[in-house]
Amino acid sequence: MKKIKELVDIRFGVNGKATNEGGIPYIQGKDFNGFGQFKNKEIFLTKKDAITEKYLLKKDDILFAGKGSRNYAVVWNGEISEAVASSTFYVLTLKSKDILPEFLAWYLNSDWVQSFLRLIAKGATISNIPKKELQGLSVNVPSIEEQHKIVEVDKLRLKEQILMRQLAKNRDLLVRKLLSNKIK
């Protein structure tokens, strides 16, 4: 077991103002779907003048939503070359070769870690995971080989969920169409 602060550097996202006019892409919670996939549509911008290099997202950074009712982690794959995370997110940058970013995101999204996060969340109206508490989170770090296996199985699980949701939508559409043709 290792503390997460031994594995990653944790910084806050940028506290900027979202706008549609000139600036740098400003990644917010709404930019990810329920499966943690980047939607890459209608990205808001924030003014670039106060943004320094250290705030720019890098490939394999982990975005962890530390504010709000849904605390989830996603790996930033560099979908947009120059972007910053909003203050909704903590940005976790790997400092250890002992852990894969996809594994850490999976771990943070696991049921048992999510249960723990709900226990440590502060705030009555909008919950917040304190940075100090997040830094103290223990992470069970298996071998890189095991991490790869876990990540691959989780990718298959996610793919199945997406396909099952699409199948249910298609079935519902087909049944509605059949029923509506019956009453014409």
Number of strands: 9
The fourth-level CATH homologous superfamily of the largest domain is DNA methylase specificity domains
Termini Cα gap: 65 Å
Name of the CATH first level of the largest domain: Alpha Beta
Shape: globular
CATH architectural group of the largest domain = Alpha-Beta Complex
Instruction: Return residue spans where pLDDT drops below 50 for at least 5 consecutive residues.
Output: none
Q: What count of domains describes the coordinates?
A: 2
What is the structural class?
alpha+beta
Rg calculated over all Cα atoms: 19 Å
Major sheet: 4 strands, antiparallel
Which fold name fills CATH's third level, the topology of the largest domain?
A: Adenine-n6-DNA-methyltransferase TaqI, Chain A, domain 2
Strand order of the largest sheet: 2-8-5-6
The helicity comes to 25-40%
Quick structural gist:
The chain is α+β, with helices and mostly antiparallel strands and about 180 residues long. The protein has helices at about 5, 100-110, 110-120, 130-135, 145-180, and strands at about 1-5, 10, 25, 45, 60-65, 75, 85, 90-95, 140. The termini are far apart.
General description of the model:
By secondary structure, the protein is α+β, with helices and mostly antiparallel strands. The chain folds into two domains: about 140 residues, DNA methylase specificity domains (Adenine-n6-DNA-methyltransferase TaqI, Chain A, domain 2, Alpha-Beta Complex), CATH 3.90.220; about 45 residues. About 35% of the residues lie in helices and about 15% in strands. It contains five helices and nine strands. A four-stranded antiparallel sheet has the order 2-8-5-6. About 20% of the residues are buried. The mean pLDDT is about 90.
